[in-house]
Design brief:
Catalyzes the condensation of iminoaspartate with dihydroxyacetone phosphate to form quinolinate. Keywords: 4Fe-4S, Cytoplasm, Iron, Iron-sulfur, Metal-binding, Pyridine nucleotide biosynthesis, Transferase. It holds the Pfam family NadA. The chain is α/β, with parallel strands linked by helices. Helices cover about 45% and strands about 15% of the residues. A four-stranded parallel β-sheet has the order 2-1-3-4, with helices on both faces. α3 runs parallel beside α15 and α5 packs parallel to α6. The protein starts with a helix and ends with a helix.
Length: about 325
């Protein structure tokens, strides 16, 4: 009988440029088991762009940014959804698929943005700014979404804000995303003080040092970065927009100012592009591993549940976003 490394050899070909051969056997048994479990349970794995290559390229069925995962979650015919990402993403998948089983491999895979605001905070904001609509980033809990008028992602935030047809909105919780969108629109944006613990660490000095040490490098920045970082970059966009930029422009040398697994995943698709990696890791995304994906499927572990009343209201906010 063939061993797991042999059975998964074709998958290793996808990631051999970032995973040394000596490490593959440690991944192969879990990958082999996960592929079998997906068939047994009619399960699908959704993986965010920040997942490590052995997850993103070897066991995931659907990959992308939070908007892409939200859209594609609605069309899956699987009975079980495993969300290889953080908790708010698993909640969003559950909101859009309330009759399906949604699993999160690690319940502690959180998000500094989601943790920065509560439903009570929104109720207080509404008292302070009566009649001003609330736009909540998808990087929020279901309870926060349920208190919001509409959701947005980094990829569609400007379109969502302008779709409301009002002179000002409350946009939360990411202060930097709100400031970066405010610079692109005439709509007045009232921001919250939440920050992504990965993107807030980038500075303009980082970019200047990269340009000095890597002449000709193209700098792409996520809009969760501070505005002065975005101003120093050659392009700013969501993880999907950054990936599309590399696909379309094929810069000889590029740096992605975002979570560093993103660079690994895009680099595997573009061997002709040199990727410079300023490695800021998301500790929450890195809680997701092949081992706990396997355990979740084997044991039906960490089933995502949301109170029905919250589901109805939060789903409406997400559906309004998807309609923009």
């Amino acid at each position: 009988m063939l061993n797991a490394s042999t059975r998964t050899a074709a998958l290793y070909d996808r990631v051999r440029r970032v995973i040394p051969p000596i490490e593959w056997p440690a991944f192969a048994s879990d990958i082999d088991a996960i592929l079998d479990l997906k068939q047994q349970r009619n399960a699908v794995i959704l993986a965010h762009n920040y997942q490590t290559p052995e997850i993103f390229h070897c066991v995931a069925d659907i990959v992308g940014d939070s908007l892409a995962l939200a859209r594609k979650a609605m069309s899956t015919e699987a009975d079980v959804i495993v969300l290889a990402g953080v908790h708010f993403m698993a909640e969003t998948a559950k909101l859009l698929n309330p009759q399906k089983t949604v699993l999160i491999p690690d319940l502690h895979a959180g998000c500094s943005l989601a943790d920065s605001i509560t439903a009570e905070d929104i109720r207080l904001l509404r008292q302070r700014y009566p009649g001003v609509p609330v736009v909540s980033y998808v990087n929020t809990s279901a309870e926060v979404k349920a208190e919001s008028d509409i959701c947005c992602t980094s990829g569609n935030a400007k379109a969502v804000v302008e779709s409301l047809g009002v002179p000002r909105v409350i946009m939360l919780p990411d202060e930097y995303l709100a400031q970066n969108i405010a610079a692109q629109t005439d709509v007045e944006i009232i921001a919250w003080k939440g920050h992504c613990e990965v993107h807030e660490r980038f500075t303009p000095a980082d970019i200047r040092e990269l340009r000095e040490s890597h002449p000709g490098v193209t700098v792409l920045a996520h809009p969760e970065c501070p505005p002065d970082v975005v101003a120093e970059a050659d392009f700013s966009g969501s993880t999907a927009a950054m990936s599309d930029y590399v696909e379309r422009q094929r810069p000889p040398r590029v740096v992605l100012m975002t979570e560093c697994s993103m660079s690994d995943n895009v680099a595997l698709q573009h061997p002709e592009v040199e990727f410079i990696r300023p490695c800021n890791l998301c500790p929450h995304m890195k809680r997701i591993t092949l081992a706990n994906i396997r355990a979740a499927l084997e044991q039906n572990r960490n089933v995502v549940t949301i109170e029905p009343g919250i589901v109805r209201r939060a789903r409406l906010a997400v559906e309004r976003m998807l309609a923009v």
